[in-house]
Amino acid sequence: MNPLDNDIKFISGVGEVRAKLLAKEIGVRTVGDMLYHFPFRYVDRTKIYNIGELNEANTSGGYIQIRGRVTGKNYFGEGRNQRFVIYIADQTGKAELIWFRGIKWIENKFELGREYLVFGRPSFYRSELSFVHPEVEPIEAALSRKENCGLQGIYSTTERLSTALGTKGMYNIIGKILDNYADRITDYMPQYMRQRYGLVTLREALETIHRPTNPMALKQAQFRLKFDELFGLQLNIQARRAARTTAHAGFHFGRVGKFFNDFYSRLPFPLTGAQKQAIKDIRADTVSGCQMNRLLQGDVGSGKTVVALISMILAVDNGFQACMMAPTEILARQHYATIVKMVDGIGLRVAVLTGTTKTKERRETLAALAAGEIDILIGTHALIEDRVQFASLGFVVIDEQHRFGVEQRAKLWTKNDNPPHILVMTATPIPRTLAMTLYGDLDVSTINELPPGRKPIKTVHYYESARLRLFGFMREQIAQGRQIYIVYPLIKESEKADYANLEQGFETIVRDFPLPQYRVTACHGKMKPEDKEESMRQFKSGEADILVATSVIEVGVDIPNATVMVIESAERFGLAQLHQLRGRVGRGSSQSYCVLISDEKLSKESRARLEAMCQTNNGFQLAELDLQLRGAGDVNGTQQSGEIIDLKIANLAEDNQIVQLAQQAAVALLTADPTLSEPQHQPLRQLKARYAKQEEVDFSVVL
Ligand code: ADP
Ligand code: MG
Fold first, then answer.
1. Which pTM does this prediction carry?
2. Maximum pairwise Cα distance, the chain
3. Most CB contacts within 10 A, which of 38, 174, 256, 701?
């Protein structure tokens, strides 16, 4: 057994009670878990501040040290509300140390007039400086302690855990572990690799990450541990990629036939260069003999649908069926309508299947599908139900892939004995590092150009108080024959308050637009599908001037005459979502506008998001910024929780170069030794296994 798998409770100073707490609060059960519970920040314990130099700006919530003499103490309140305060001072100022709990234990530890070192997080109240529950030690004792001479790690903890252990307690446990286990840490990385990639040994890295001797050594330790994490992930991704390309022979779409030629000659517009390139990529994949797994990313309005359609037609020309899955009913119906119109007259059989398809129609469609009488099937999640059986499914398109869970996609896969080619499309650009990590086994085509003639959307940010101005602007636009979206946030379908917002908003609009010639309609997830559809139809046909909606219209809806997108409570939307919503306008040749309405009170982050929206229309830039603002874990939103990567130390927003290096290293290693069978590589299986469970569903087969 690996000594690092030993139960944490056997470390002296831990015991049963604390072990339970560690497991419950931060998931630490073994010695190894604790070693891999890295500090998230470090404080420089050589630095002792003068009290007088501290202010809110230069401390901003971080831990710091001061030293001061005790000038007095006091008690406030009674019982559970009791508060104990120690007053201290240095030559430059004074501060209060405050305890709400454990007062009995702390009150006798101080001597009037004696000097102490105080370590904690300062807070300022009416310019009074105070520390709540700081760590305090007599100055002589503090300065003689070894770990107080350099950088000290700060560990993430919980309230219960920090009450029971504190930073010092945590530090002691780590210290004991390092003292007893350091020489039992074996490195799975062979020496030649450490040399090639400039990595310190695992032992050195783990020791240093907890007890850095100097900033340089800390950097090296962090580099090693980040590398391991990303390399472990890449070993899995690249292995899957390799397995995929050898495991399945892909269907061969060698023929460019009648359907393709007919369609191409009828296209109402020339394809953009980027669209042509994407089609070239797909054509190359579909004659390669391997199954295609391609991600097509392109900003909203860049024309992905036609690329998908051409690919599906190619499949049909080669005797296969194709299907396209969209995340919402509205979008599936819209795709169906668009595609039917585009292929009119060339003899393709296109059908649609969604959750609301009537029983009789469903039965007929399913029978036709199984008999091979349908060429292209468009639909929602309904497509993945077991009863949906194809005669010969050759090509699958998944639109707005981030909306689908991994398992949902995995199901489409099993519709055939042989895997169809798969094209996943997203208008939510994924920053490169994230793509390499999340979708490292996909090939990527990027549509980085919009069809010609589009005017960039003008985006402005108004506070609530500018609403009258907004209404004036809306009237002007409607007078010019334009249509307007007004979107209210809807974070969860069940949030009643959001509907209240929307309903109230709807009423306000109806009330504030009393002129009978303005027609307002509404669309949200709580409505019956028929009502939703009717409402969309009214807006699409121009019968309604204003559509009040929740973010159900976020993806894909295409109504060129709608040129104004008003987003209410814009601060509540994420950047990707805002960009998607904005993408609903700017689809025709007239100037389009996006108006972001927000509260006056904004967090720093919300403000940054709204500013970014006003500054750029470029989805890729926004995606990069989103990654910086939110950190990687969150970027793809909750829908993708199965794929969110739980990284302990690497940061996809910052560690670009390490991501790339780790990928190269994984490819090089697997090329040389695909099964990690060489003795010097065998220990690396351990690392690979650790990150294998990141994706429990094998989505290699789907993506
Ligand atoms: P998205 O990439 O957001 O899915 P769509 O496929 O919905 O974009 O395309 C947006 C609009 O642009 C559609 O109305 C489509 O007909 C049109 N379009 C697509 N390609 C071109 C092109 N090459 N030239 C002109 N218009 C195009
Ligand atoms: Mg689309």
1. 0.68
2. 95
3. 174
